[in-house]
Specification:
Blueprint: H1 8-28, E1 36-40, H2 54-63, E2 68-70, E3 77-79, E4 82-86, E5 92-97, H3 111-124, H4 129-135, E6 143-147, E7 150-154, H5 162-165, H6 176-181, H7 184-189, E8 197-202, E9 206-211, E10 218-222, H8 226-235, E11 240-241, H9 252-256, E12 260-272, H10 283-292, H11 295-300, E13 307-309, H12 334-343, E14 350-356, H13 362-376, E15 379-385, H14 388-394, E16 401-406, H15 412-420, H16 429-440, H17 444-461, E17 464-476, E18 480-481, E19 485-486, E20 490-491, E21 497-498
Parallel strand pairs: 1-10, 1-11, 14-15
Antiparallel strand pairs: 2-3, 4-5, 5-7, 6-7, 8-9, 9-10, 11-17, 12-16, 12-17, 13-17, 18-21, 19-20
């Protein structure tokens, strides 16, 4: 199952340097400026099939309209550019497009706009290629154009969640002219999409997006610093800040009232257990380790309020079938942890916590190791390695290891299935059968129950313990309206408006 960042003269110069960005910021957000301003880090690229960061995803979802979009309230996939997406067996899918759709340059959106774009993503090995090849299990040979508004996709296995996957930027269409020219560099600078906003201009400081059917421009300003964004939004010089500094989380309500929001994410962090290590094979040992970890202390400390403690294996940003509090053993309970470990016969010797060096995990791994030493008197040791995947595959990992997973589409099975490919060796037939049922379900709703049953089974055996999930934070000025966001879309730029 495939899952799977000195002298008077010098003082005068410093003042000039400090005043320059302030003046620029005021110029950006002059009260007379009719544009809606959003602060964000610069995107790595604007090519939808190569999106690899939050800013790129946010812009892509405004500049393009995919075959499906995600309902803001339910998180479910709903047809957008597609008139219908049907299949008799969840393996062979027929996609029919809505008539009359065009790109911003007036050229038509056709079947080849999609199949050509998908073939390009695979051929160029862009960031989205994993979704096409590994998650959906398709290649160029699996795509057949029937006519300008109809094409057929054949997957390598039944997948009921395939339509929900099609809202990812990896599946967005590209115009014929760029597919023919393959001039990705030029196209990536000012791409032409088919969505509600079009790219009017772009430079190092800002990307200006213009509504296709009239309205206010949205300007995405290059402001990677969270404190700069927050302060600018607080003073009214920026309409929406997409980041909040660590030390302002406790004061958001006082600073912004109800003009702030945390959006649950689709990324999860786990500690997984290598199945071949006998002393960690007991579910009771794993459960004891889980209860000994104070997740809130880590998310509020080393992780700087950018993450939420996990209470389930499924990412909280997956709204279909969402349930809270699935993982009772994720609640910190030192006494219960000590008792459980004693019942399991204890755990002696060093306990290495394996993680990838240079990925930014050092602080939280150290904090978890400290907690395990304090709560359970274990000799827990952070153990960074240059290539964790290789260490797992080679079988050299002898302790819990960090796993970072991102759900590819909004369904519980999309969070659970990657854990089977994490390297734990977990292969319980009951659980894998349930996940198979969830993936092959005729409708998303029918896939929820088997996925949740599989989650319950996995929490009992605990091949991987959930730790926390990343979330987005937004704060905004008094003049902006319509601030909404989703785990799979980011901030919805096209929904923003200004107070009348």
């Amino acid at each position: 199952m495939k899952s799977s960042t000195r002298t008077a003269a010098l003082v005068t110069g410093a003042v000039v340097v400090l005043l320059a960005p302030i003046a620029a910021l005021k110029a950006w957000s002059d009260p007379a400026d009719p544009r809606i301003s959003v602060g964000a880090a610069a995107p790595a690229t604007l090519l939808p099939g190569d999106v690899r960061d939050d800013t790129g995803r946010m812009i892509a979802n405004a500049v393009w309209t995919g075959l499906v979009s995600y309902d803001p309230k339910t998180g479910a996939a709903v047809n957008a550019a597609a008139a219908s997406i049907t299949s008799p067996d969840r393996r062979v899918w027929t996609v029919r497009l809505r008539p009359g759709a065009t790109f911003h340059d007036g050229s038509p959106v056709t079947s080849r706009s999609f199949t050509g774009a998908w073939t390009t993503v695979l051929r160029e090995h862009w960031a989205g290629s994993r979704l096409l090849s590994d998650v959906a299990g398709l290649d160029a040979a699996h795509l057949k154009v029937t006519d300008d508004r109809t094409f057929v996709v054949t997957l390598d296995r039944p997948m009921g969640g395939f339509p929900a996957l099609l809202g990812d930027p990896a599946f967005f269409p590209l115009p014929d002219r760029v597919l023919a020219s393959r001039d990705w560099a030029s196209y990536g600078r000012t791409p032409v999409g088919n969505g509600p906003l079009r790219v009017r201009s772009r430079n190092a400081r800002e990307i200006v997006l213009t509504p296709r059917k009239g309205g206010r421009d949205v300007v995405v300003k290059t402001m990677p610093n969270a404190r700069t964004q927050y302060t600018a939004a607080e003073s009214g010089e920026l309409d929406v800040a997409t980041r909040v500094p660590t030390d302002r989380h406790e004061s958001m309500n006082a600073d912004f009232g109800d003009r702030h929001r945390a959006v649950p994410g689709r990324d999860m962090t786990y500690l997984a257990f290598p199945g071949r290590v006998e002393r960690l094979a007991s579910p009771t040992v794993r459960q004891a380790l889980s209860m000994a970890i104070d997740r809130s202390a880590v998310t509020e400390g080393p992780l700087g309020h950018q993450y939420s403690p996990a209470d389930a294996l499924v990412a909280p940003g997956i709204l279909p079938g969402h349930r809270e509090g699935q993982c009772r053993l994720c609640v910190h309970d030192g006494k219960a942890a000590v008792a459980a470990l004693a019942d399991a016969g204890g755990l002696t010797g060093p306990l290495n916590l394996w993680y990838e060096a240079g990925r930014g995990d050092d602080a939280w791994v150290k904090a978890v190791a400290d907690q395990l030493r304090r709560e359970l008197r274990l000799d827990a040791r952070p153990h960074p390695v240059p290539d964790l995947r290789k260490a797992v595959q080679d079988g050299t990992v002898d302790g819990p290891f960090a796993v970072h997973a991102t759900a590819a589409y909004p369904a519980p099975v999309a969070s659970l299935a990657p854990l089977l490919d994490a390297g734990t060796g977990f292969a319980d037939g009951y659980t894998t059968d349930l996940l198979d049922q969830a993936e092959r379900a005729a409708t998303p709703d029918e896939g929820v129950i088997p996925a949740r049953l599989a989650e319950s089974a996995m929490l009992r055996d605990m091949p991987a313990m959930p730790l926390w999930s990343r979330h987005d934070h937004f704060v905004w000025s008094e003049r902006v309206r319509g601030v909404s966001a989703g785990a799979f879309t980011g901030l919805r730029l096209a929904a923003l408006s200004l107070k009348d």
